[in-house]
Amino acid sequence: MAQAHRTPHALRMPAKTPLASDADNACCVRDVICNEAVPFRPYCAGVVTRTRNVSEYMPVLAVRLVIIVRMQAKHEALKEEYATFERILRETEDSLQRVNAERAHCASELSEVQRDVAAKHQEKTRLEDEIMEKMRAQLTADKAAKYSAKIVQRLRERTKDLETQVCVCVCVCRKRCYDDAGR
Fold first, then answer.
1. pTM of the predicted protein model
2. Helix residue ranges per DSSP H, the chain
3. Which of 2, 13, 28, 44 has the fewest Cβ atoms within 10 angstroms?
């Protein structure tokens, strides 16, 4: 007889059962319940005893069968749940890769923009310095021009005063000369 499907170790009947009268009968009952190949044992009870023992264990077997069916259903549900979680994990990993790629792209764009901003800031600072230098030069030139105009004005006034004084002196001298000559 070929060996049939075995039940899990936890569901097997113990070697000693309360229904069996001795160890040999218990082994025979266990062999029948667990679908194991039973070798010829002259010391085992007869077929009637086995049938009776098997029929006594039928409710227990039915309960165990229900438990097995429930466990199989639970196992299938867990397999489906596992497959769902595995799909979600793959989708999440794909999304993570896309986000990381986008982040890397954004980081490179950001560094490029920062370099551009730094270059523009440096150019702005250079232009501001040039403008300030030209304004200082212009202010200095304006002040120098005002000062020069002021000095030129003073010189003109002084020259005019001196010319007036010279004219007065010349007139006085001429008058004296005419007065002295006419006397």
1. 0.40
2. 23-33, 47-181
3. 2
pLDDT above 90 (res 99): yes
What are the tens digits of pLDDT across the range 107-124?
999 999 999 999 999 999
Which structure tokens are listed for 72? 């199989």
Residue 117: what are its φ and ψ, rounded to 5°? -65, -40
What are the angstrom distances between the C-alpha of 86 and each of 73, 75, 78, 140?
20, 16, 12, 79
Rounded Cα distance between 127 and 115, Å, is 18
Structure letter (DSSP) for residue 18: T
Any idea which residue has 């409710």 for tokens? 59
pLDDT at 85: 97
**Cβ–Cβ under 8 Å, residues 36 and 6:** yes
Q: How far apart are CA 52 and CA 20, in angstroms?
A: 11
Token pair 């266990």: residue: 30
Identify the DSSP state of 16.
S
What distance in Å separates the CA atoms of residue 180 and residue 106, rounded to the nearest whole number?
107
What whole-number distance in Å separates Cα of residue 76 and Cα of residue 128? 76
Q: What is the 3-state secondary structure (H, E, C) of 34-49?
A: CCCCCCCCCCCCCHHH
